[in-house]
Structures are given as C-alpha cells and as structure tokens.
C-alpha cells in the first residue's frame, strides 16, 4: 500500500530557535520580570528591541500609547507569514489586509505602533492580549486576510447580483 505524506507542516509555525537557558539574576531583576506581567521570553525580546517599558499607574486601567515597533518589523512579519503559508492568496486580498493593518496600527503614517496597553499589548483587531508586538502582528495577519477575503467576496457577490438583476 502506497502512503503519501502531506508536505505541509503540522501545528504552529516556528517563531525561531528554541534553546534551554539558565539565568542567574538578582531578586530585584526577577521581580522586575514578574511585575511586567510578561513571560520571561517576551520580557527579554522587548528589552533586546529596546522597546520602552510601559508601566501603567494603578488608576489607569488601559492607555493608548505609541510603542517602539517600527513599520519594517511589521513588514518583516508579513514576509515571514507569506513565506510559511501554503495558501495562494490573491494580491488584492493581501493588499487589503496589509492596508488595514497599517492604517490602524500606524495611524497618520506614524513611525511607531499605537495600541492599547495593559501590562500586555492589546490587539486593536481582536481585543486579544499579547506579550510582544511580534506575536500581536503575526497573529493579526491571518485574521486580516480572512476579513479582506470576506469583504472582497461580498463585493463580488453584490456585483454579480446586480448584474443578474440587470438582465
């Protein structure tokens, strides 16, 4: 019996190389990581990207603030997503989804993302919370593609319906 194997990867796509690491930090440094509300990995990634530490006062439940996450990083997430997906998506859907992302995350051609923050990054598309902007942007891409696909399909259906009514 011949078995064919599906070449598509199973599970979530890799986000990088995983290495086991042992960290020796002071009690104050561990407290800083714990108080951030982020995972150790998300905390370290943010520090490596030199993103500003967002500390909210107890009175302030959430804030919309600029986050140091330049447009090229979001573009890089798009490229990574498109390289890893098996879907052959029409360029109009990709363009519509990208336009939506950049209009909302980078209003008025802002250099940095502006999102609501409450110990984590809150996605303006889904309301879900993430420990890093990389994860927020990477997760938003398939959602935006789905929305752009649905919108374009609705427009095509309406146009076909109008054409049919003309006859």
Index terms:
167 residues; elongated; 5 helices; alpha+beta
Give the gist of this structure.
The protein is of the alpha+beta class and 167 residues long.
How would you describe this protein?
This protein is α+β, with helices and mostly antiparallel strands. The chain is 49% helix and 8% strand. It has five helices and four strands, in the order ααβααβββα. The chain has a four-stranded antiparallel beta sheet with strand order 1-2-3-4. A hairpin with a 6-residue loop joins strand 3 (121-122) and strand 4. Helix 3 (71-84) crosses helix 5 (133-166) and helix 4 (91-105) packs across helix 5 (133-166). The model is unreliable at 51-58 (pLDDT under 50).
What is the secondary structure topology, with strand pairs?
Blueprint: H1 27-36, H2 40-48, E1 63-67, H3 71-84, H4 91-105, E2 113-117, E3 121-122, E4 129-130, H5 133-166
Antiparallel strand pairs: 1-2, 2-3, 3-4
Helix pairs in contact: 3-5, 4-5
Query: What global shape is seen?
Result: elongated
Give the spatial strand order of the biggest sheet: 1-2-3-4
| Average pLDDT over all residues | 79
Annotation field: number of helices:
5
State the share of residues found in helices, binned by percent.
40-55%
H and E order: HHEHHEEEH
Q: Which regions are unreliable across 5 or more consecutive residues at pLDDT < 50? A: 51-58
Quaternary structure of the protein: single chain
Structural class: alpha+beta
What's the number of extended β-strand segments?
Answer: 4
Largest sheet: 4 strands, antiparallel
Distance between the termini: 54 Å
Radius of gyration: 20 Å
Binned strand content:
5-15%
């Amino acid at each position: 019996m011949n078995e064919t194997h599906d070449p598509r990867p199973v599970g979530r796509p890799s986000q990088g190389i995983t290495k086991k690491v042992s960290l020796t930090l002071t009690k104050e440094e561990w407290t800083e990581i714990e108080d951030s509300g982020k995972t150790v990995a998300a905390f370290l990634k943010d520090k490596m990207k030199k993103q500003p530490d967002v500390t909210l006062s107890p009175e302030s439940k959430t804030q919309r603030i600029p986050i140091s996450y330049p447009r090229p990083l979001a573009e890089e997430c798009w490229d990574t997503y498109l390289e890893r997906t098996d879907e052959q998506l029409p360029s109009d859907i990709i363009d519509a989804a990208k336009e939506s992302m950049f209009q909302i995350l980078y209003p008025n051609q802002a250099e940095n993302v502006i999102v609501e923050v409450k110990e984590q990054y809150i996605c303006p598309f889904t309301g879900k919370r993430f420990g890093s902007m990389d994860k927020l942007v990477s997760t938003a891409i398939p959602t935006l593609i789905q929305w752009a696909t649905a919108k374009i399909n609705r427009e095509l259906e309406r146009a076909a319906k109008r054409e049919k009514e003309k006859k």
